Amino acid sequence: MLKTKLAVDLCRRGYSVGADGVLFIEPSQKADFTMRIFNGDGSEAETCGNASRCIARLALELGIAPARMSFETKSGVYRASVQNNYASVEMTDPDEMRLNIAFDEDWFPAEVLHSICIGVPHAVAFLKEESLKGINVFGMGRTLRHHPLFQPAGTNVNFARVMDRGNIEIRTYERGVEEETLACGTGCAATAVIAGHLDLADSPTRMHTQGGLINTIHYKIKDGKTTSLILEGDARIVYKGEIDIEI
Question: Is the pTM of this model over 0.90?
Fold first, then answer.
């Protein structure tokens, strides 16, 4: 309960630090540490790709783990490596993939959706627009996040444009944050993997996010299964400080 309230208090933009979520490092009996993630709405997430890179970078900085480390998440044990400001995370294998889900809605710019679980559920739509800048990510994302197709848990929603076989533009509406975020690591992984299964892109895939960050996704596909899923990208310490919170 304390972590839930702390996450809500810290994530309020304009009133506190402001963030999409808060990470907690806790002890582990089978890895270097445990990562727990609380979204800005107070809900606890199973995992988070970008958070995994960030917490690996911080754990190394604090001397909690070596440059090659492992840590527990609610989705399983991840392995990570950090070199300078760059982090690579080996994620658990995705599952529950559904391709070409018919979605005939006048307000939606694609005729099919795809879904997959990368520790957390993701819906993916590939759009034919020349750019994703004009897409109503909040409106369509919020509607799909609560759509009966993805209940009861709901889903994260990714809008993607294939630039070429090695590059994909992506924008993501995140469940729990309930907003578009500047980048979503598991969303990048979900979109890259589905693009691979649809023969739209190859591994490694460079994912171009709304915030300008480029996440690189590596994976292998054999007999319809995805393995060796790796997320790579920047992980930088922006600032350090102390905060007093009235509990």
Answer: yes
Nearest to 246, CA basis, from 7, 20, 9, 4: 9
What pLDDT is recorded for position 194? Answer: 98
Residue of 11, 54, 117, 184 marked active site? 184
- Asked if 191 contacts 198 with a C-beta cutoff of 8 angstroms, the reply is no
Widest CA span of the chain, in angstroms? Answer: 54
Domains of the chain (ranges; CATH) run 2-90 (3.10.310.10), 95-222 (3.10.310.10)
Q: Is 11 a catalytic residue?
A: no
**What per-residue confidence (pLDDT) applies to 109?**
92
Closest CA to 213 of 236, 194, 191, 192: 236
Provide the 8-state DSSP code for 41.
T
Which pLDDT score, from 0 to 100, does residue 242 have?
A: 87
Of 62, 79, 33, nearest to 232 (Cα)? 79
Question: What pLDDT does residue 241 have?
Answer: 87
Start-to-end Cα distance in the chain: 11
Alpha-carbon dihedral 46, 84, 80, 205, rounded to 10 degrees: 80
What is the chain's mean pLDDT, rounded? Answer: 94
* Angle (CA) 164 165 171, round 5°: 65
188 is catalytic: no
Catalytic residue among 48, 54, 117, 188: 48
Determine the Cα–Cα distance for residues 62 and 210; give it in Å rounded to an integer: 30
Report, as ranges of residue numbers, the positions in the chain whose pLDDT lies below 70.
1, 246-247
